[in-house]
Amino acid sequence: MVTASRPSAPRRDPLSALLVAPPVLGAVATLVTSASLTSWDLVTDGVGAVLFALAFVGWSMLPFAAAVAVGRSVHRYWRGGSPVAFVGGVVLVALTVWVLWDIVTSESSTAVIGLLFVPFAQAAVAGLTMAGAVGVATLRRRGASGADTTAEPDS
Question: Model pTM greater than 0.85?
Fold first, then answer.
């Protein structure tokens, strides 16, 4: 008797979730804080205000989208750099929480302007994370292949 084998469901890799979770948590923290600081009467005032609010949300989410892309890319192509990608995601969340806490607890009336500029620093963290992860993965690949980069060339 021959039985047909069913294709098995693809296995989920917890590493992928581990690399993506910190930026997602940072994005949620940013959205919640921004929503709590927003005057909803102003946002619903007109079409221009709604468009500005949507543009601001998109702007503030760009670094987190980049960090998620870094995590997915490292998971797929540069697995040797996974520890660096995870640490970079945690640093991104720590930076985000620190800045948001500073803005919320500040007594300055203009502290909220910081929300416009923090994505630059967050994007820099995402870029440095990708560079570091690729660098570590490349070094690990070279070490695993046994390539000796210090050997003298033949004359």
Answer: no
